[in-house]
Amino acid sequence: MIRAVIVDVDDTLCLTEAASFELENEVLARMGREPMTREIHLATWGEILLDAMPHRSPGVDLDRFARLFAVLHQRYLADGRLDVIPPENLRALDELVEDGRSVLLLTSRTEAEVRHLLQPDHVLAGRVTGAYHQGNTRYRKPDPRAFDELLAETGFRPHECVYVGDSPGDAVAAGGAGIRFVACLQSGVRRLDEFDPRYVTAAVPAFPDILPVIRGLRGEAAA
């Protein structure tokens, strides 16, 4: 059977691109800079934040941006404007756990950006058994080695896992690691024709739709 369902965070488990766009532009406004366009934000979405910002706002002071972002990020979280996981997605996680599968997170976020999701009072507690991020992995998607630590620490074999994500880079990383990939297109940020079909096992319009897909897969190694 499929023993592990590995889930991306942004625009997969929760829809974050639009909220992040507002947050980053608020930081830029406090720095006295012009707002970025939605087009450039979408074009660079999925990149590491401080790598993307010179493209989103050329000439931006990255150190100052990072300091202001950290403060406003916490305020957005406290106000419930960021990283809100819909109830239907939580129910889907519950069903995966009830099916006897482990649920893990694999994201390109920094440790600081994922720490709040791992607190014992967070809604993910008891649902997610581990999280892999920039703080505990050596490689970043789309490098298939992004899964190295997860596989080594859990003992799961690639054919026993499914990765659920929203970007072509997610698919490339999973496919290169021998892990089946389900594209979640709920955010509308990506289209299915942007993905390399060699790496896509299935595509779903919303996160809960992964349930019948995963239940229909057999955890067998490829011939």
UniProtKB/TrEMBL annotation:
InterPro entries: HAD-like_hydrolase_sf, HAD-like_sf, HAD_2, HAD_sf, PGP-like_dom2. It comes from the Bacteria. One of its GO terms (molecular function) is phosphoglycolate phosphatase activity. GO terms for biological process: DNA repair. PANTHER family: PHOSPHOGLYCOLATE PHOSPHATASE (PTHR43434:SF1). This is Phosphoglycolate phosphatase.
